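Hello forum,

I keep getting stuck at the same step: I have a sequence, I want structure tokens, and every attempt I make locally crashes halfway through. Rather than fight my setup again tonight, could one of you with a working pipeline run this one for me? It's a single chain of 358 residues.
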Amino acid sequence: MIKRKPRPISRRSLLAGTGAVAAGLTFAPKLGWTAEEAKVNFYNWDTYIGETTLDDFEDATGISVTMDLFADNDELFSKLKEGNPGYDLIVPTNDYAERMILAGMLEPLDHSLIPNKKNINPAFQDANFDPGRKYTMPYMWGTMGIGYRKSKVDGIPDSWKWLMDSDRYKGRVALLSDSQGVFSAAAKYLGKSVNFTDEADVKAIEDLLTKNKPNIKVFADDNGQDLLLSGTVDLTMEWNGDINQVIEEDDDLAYVVPKEGSLIWQDTLAIPTGAPHPINAHKLIDYILDADAGAKIADFIQYATANEAARQLLSDAYRENPAIFPPQEVLGRCESAVYRGEGVQRMINDAWTRVLAA
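Reply #2:
Ran it on my machine without issues. Output:
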């Protein structure tokens, strides 16, 4: 069993670190690849790696890791769409991974360099957004819901209405700054699919968010859990693992997936086109998929791992936590987002810009 370590200072606050793949493994360069310096540049979500993972990787391989942080998929995509500024490994969510694949922004993986692929749960060995796992390896998965302070709200906030269509907790509510997440939650509240494509649906969501914006204290850059923990807000839209991290520090906090349903997402490990150290990136992927390393990561960040070998090393408290592994009843109300084309994406982006400016 992995012993739980203290939470980071700050989805997911390590600003830099070091790391590489399991000791003893050898990697033959792919045709066209040349010898690499012993480094890898990692672009990741905040609080989304184990406490010692990158240092352990460096100790095992001699390869150092520099890690930069992004707040959401929009920021990740924007950073890379005009060309890779030097990153070797990134962590896009499933629909953005699909978008990047179609745009030629990801390098095909060499599975022979990722022997720990065998540790992945069979349910994640393939993906409809990346058939054959040609470009991505699964990392973590989970839900988006509401984190709340029990002593400050009346009952369980089991509807998106509490965040999107009410002044009951005016000035005590945070939404994510992630356009896809917010629009998906609003779509579920309005009885629509998270994969809406009609302009009328975009307009209905925009109108809902604009009307309710005066009640929102902040659109949080992936730090809603910290705002909740500090008492800055009493309710926040957040990713389940981020709320799980702060629940361990304050038992007055809780997490719920609203009754209308929500997003179920999968984050992936991928190598962006033009990565300067692709071999080292493969090594870091393989290290993350190691059973012991993967267990330490999952236990520390409190997200659901797609690494079955790692999951088996963790405690019943982790494996049976419904906020990490929701019951089928909850999952049945959730949807995975798919990439709906640049036209729909442009409509959402434009509407989001208007909401923020309102």
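DSSP finds 14 helices and ten strands in the chain. If your local run keeps crashing, start a new thread with the error log.
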